[in-house]
Fold:
Amino acid sequence: MGVNNGSALLEEKQQETSTDEKSVCQLLTLTSKPHCGEAAEVSATFSTPQQIKLKLSAWLDSGGGWLSQYRQLAHYFSLLCFLLIIITLLQTLCLVQITLVFQSQSTLQETKLRDLTHSLEKLNQSYNLLFSQYPALNQYCPVSNSTTSERVCSPCPAGWTPQGEKCFLFSQDRADWISSQYHCMALGGAVVTVRTEEEQVFLWKKARSLSQGDSYWLGLRSSGGDGGWQWSDGSPVEQGPGFWEREPDKTDSSELCGRLTPGDTYTRSWFTYRCSNLLRRICERRQASLQ
Structure:
C-alpha cells in the first residue's frame, strides 16, 4: 500500500512537470514564438544554479576588463589635460614676462629720448648764443641751408681753400703788389709764401683751373740794390725751394716782385714783374684751431 502510494506520487509529479513544461512552451509561444524544443534547450542550459553562476562570473570578468581599460584611458586623458594646462600656464607666464620687459624697455627708451631732446635744445641755445656773441665765427661756419639754419663748419673762412695747415684765397680783382699785401692783411693773412714743393704744385694747379692763363702775385720781392730776394715775411727765398722760369738778374736794381704764371710745368712758373703792375693775388692764412 505504501509502494502504491509512492508510485502514485511519482506519477503526479511527472504529470505536474509535464504540465509545467507545456505551460512554459505556451508562454514562450505567446511572447517570442520559439519552438518548444528551443525552450527545452534554454531550460537545459540554465538548468542548474552552478552554470548560471559561471556565466555571470564570465560576464563580470569581461566587464571588469573593459572597466580597467576605461579607467586607464581616463587616467591618460587626465594626465594629458594636466600637461596641456601646465604648458598653457608657462606660455602665459612667458608672454607676461616679455610684455613687461618690452614695456620697461619702451619706458627707458622714452626717458632717454626725452633727455636727449632736452640736451639738444640746450645745445642749440648755446650754439646760437655763441654765434650771436662772436659774429666772426660766421666766416668759418656759414649757413648752408636757410630752411633748417644748418651750418657747415670749415677750418678756413668762406671762399678760402684748405691745403695742409694753410688756407688760400685766389682773388678775382687786380691790384699792385703793395695794395695786394694790404688786401690780404685786411683778411687776416698775407700774400702767399711757398715753403714746399707740395704747396707749389697745389697753387699751380689751382691757378690753372681758375685764371685761364692769368698770373697771380706771390709774396716775392727783391730786397734792393744787393739783388737778393725775400718773402713778404722777411725770410730769404734761398732758404726754400725755387721754381723760377729764369733766375732773376742780381744786378738789376729796379723794384721787382714775383708772380705765378701757370704754364706747362710747375717747376718753371715764377717770373719777375714790376711791382706797380696790376695782377690778381693769392692770400694765405693759417687754418683755425680750437687749441
